[in-house]
Specification:
Blueprint lengths: L2 H11 L37 E2 L2 E2 L30 E10 L5 E2 L4 E5 L27 E5 L5 E7 L10 E7 L5 E8 L2 H8 L30 E5 L3 E10 L2
Parallel strand pairs: 3-11
Antiparallel strand pairs: 1-2, 3-4, 3-7, 5-6, 5-8, 8-9, 10-11
Length: 246
Amino acid sequence: MERKEFLKRGFSALGLAAIIPVISCSNDSVDPVETSTDTTGTTSGSTSGSTSGTCTATASETEGPFPTKSPASLVSNDITSDRPGTKLTVKITIQNKNNSCEGLEGALVDIWHCDAAGNYSEYGGTGMQSTNYTSVHFLRGRQTTDVNGLVTFTSIYPGWYSGRAVHIHVHVYNASGKSLLVTQIAFPEDITKVVFAQGVYASHGQADTTNAKDNVFGDGVSTEMSTVTGSVSAGYELTHAIVVSA
């Protein structure tokens, strides 16, 4: 199946994929128990998430067709590998909705995203992705949250592929390996346009799908929109809070 066809039909085939965390498309387990612009992003309205106390639970989303196969083996702060692109520092804070929205210490946080050309590592050679990257693991990594619930990754600004807005995938587990949430992080489109007009992104052009027309983000991104600051020359910093029930 072509990747674009998956995006058109795959979510309905997955049933509740946009509502609850989905099992990996791969047979490999992802359970760790078993194994210059200064513009900042702003949020928009959404019907996703539920409010309790002073924070709103982050919406769950599909892992998509390219989840990390063995995340426990990819513990790393710098997930860039050999991928060229504009530097992006990713700072994610995990908050516990069941504990007055305090930072959740000891949570396992996996992230993964495509490169500047829209390709994922660990996959390829098929209709979903023609370029074969099955033997490499770029732009994938795991960190454990500190006492404040924070993890930090060094990466590049994600590229795009047809049918999807720019995004980062996130899977959060508790310290025992229980899955707490699968979600995605959205990007402010004004900054994305600046990034995609230069460097290794320019040949691929601007993204063909906005957040509002995206199959995943189409119901709103109020709990998934990141704040991005910085510049092309100095690099960008993404900050985002993800609220789980632990």
